[in-house]
Design brief:
With 53 residues, this protein is mainly alpha-helical. 0% of the residues are buried. The chain is built from 3 helices and no strands. The chain is globular and about 35 Å long.
């Protein structure tokens, strides 16, 4: 995400990671139907690990 933003001259506001996590949580709590397959779980895990690096 950071590399994409830098490559496209996009300024990320302080706290953008927190806001992204809140939106994901909100969608889950709204009961949006989705299937959490291993593929998606690994993708999300990798994404959050990179954000926290």
């Amino acid at each position: 995400m950071l590399a994409f933003a830098q490559a496209h001259q996009i300024t990320l506001e302080p706290g953008w990671k927190v806001e992204a996590a809140r939106r994901v949580k909100q969608r889950v709590l709204e009961g949006k139907k989705f299937e959490l397959t291993d593929k998606y779980l690994l993708s999300w895990t990798g994404l959050f690990e990179r954000w926290n690096a």
